[in-house]
Amino acid sequence: MQPSSPQEADTAKCETLQCATDHCGTFQSITMTSKNPSSKTEGQTLSGSTTKRILVIDDDPGILDFIEELLSFRFQILKASDATSGLQLADTGKPDLIILDLGLENQSGHDLCRVLRRRPETKHIPILIYTGADDIENLTQAFDFGADDYVIKSARPRELVARVVAKIRRLEEQVDEPEVVTCGNLTMNAARLEATIDDRTIPLSVLEFNLLRFFVVNKEKVVSRQQILEGVWKDAVVSNRTIDTHMVYLRKKLSGFSHNLATVYGAGYILRETRTETRS
């Protein structure tokens, strides 16, 4: 959703600058947008190779420009206005995060999300849905197809900024963690973002991978929703319902796992070994 008046635009910019200052302290303009529609990529970096890249896929030019203004203080922004160019940029631009609209004209965002998750070149890239549709069916389907998180376009701009910064920070922190962790018959490889149960690969989104890894590191311990928020979502603003929704879908993917993600009513969740007689 674009600001509808100069006053709203000024308010959005102030909120963004404040959020950016909170997270980064300084600002840096790092994006140059190509005006040639036939160019191979729609954004070119002006800074070093350590700059994280964000690919934004939306068929509304106003939204593309709006997100670029919000995030270019720290990130290189790549922009695509349709699914075809978005998929191409996902391959060639090597983004660290994809912001995806569900309502694309030539192909639905749901379908593109599914394609991105199936391709070896892009399956590891976190996908944040940025959509005007706030109905649970649309969002549930997006999670089914591999989305990691979502922000409604009517939300305040600083919420989008906070979630993007939190996800990038999480990617950076993974460098210092053990590459491989195990739990029963589950093995998780952080370098490949791959999880296997009895050598069978489990199709997890990036957020689901991080969520499951959090429980493996804290196995046999009751963790509250607040601890899950701090450990997985970091500074992002999410509700308890968001956590519960991800837990439902994560459990569905863990068939045959020697451990169980159990709800501890009034306290949170726990990952504990499944008793032999009830193990599926």
Fraction of residues in helix? 25-40%
Number of helices: 9
Radius of gyration from CA coordinates: 19 Å
Low-confidence stretches: 1-49
Query: Largest beta sheet, briefly?
Result: 5 strands, parallel
Proportion of residues in β-strands? 15-25%
First and last CA, distance: 46 Å
User: Could you tell me the mean pLDDT?
Assistant: 79
From the spread of the alpha carbons, the general shape counts as globular
What's the helix-strand series? HEEEHEHEHEHEHEEEEHEHHEE
Structural class: alpha/beta
Count of DSSP E strands? Answer: 14
Strand order of the largest sheet: 4-3-5-6-7
Structural features:
280 residues; alpha/beta; 5-stranded parallel β-sheet
Topology of helices and strands:
Blueprint: H1 6-24, E1 31-33, E2 43-45, E3 53-57, H2 61-71, E4 76-80, H3 83-92, E5 97-100, H4 109-118, E6 127-131, H5 136-144, E7 149-152, H6 157-173, E8 180-183, E9 186-189, E10 194-197, E11 200-202, H7 206-217, E12 222-223, H8 225-233, H9 240-252, E13 259-264, E14 268-273
Parallel strand pairs: 3-4, 3-5, 5-6, 6-7
Antiparallel strand pairs: 1-2, 8-9, 9-10, 10-11, 12-14, 13-14
Question: What's the short version?
Answer:
The protein is α/β, with parallel strands linked by helices and 280 residues long.
Can you give a write-up of this model?
The chain is α/β, with parallel strands linked by helices and 280 residues long. It has 9 helices and 14 strands. The chain has a 5-stranded parallel beta sheet, sandwiched between helices. Strands 8-9-10-11 form a 4-stranded antiparallel beta sheet, with helices on one face. A 3-stranded antiparallel beta sheet has the order 12-14-13. It is globular. The model is unreliable at 1-49 (pLDDT under 50).
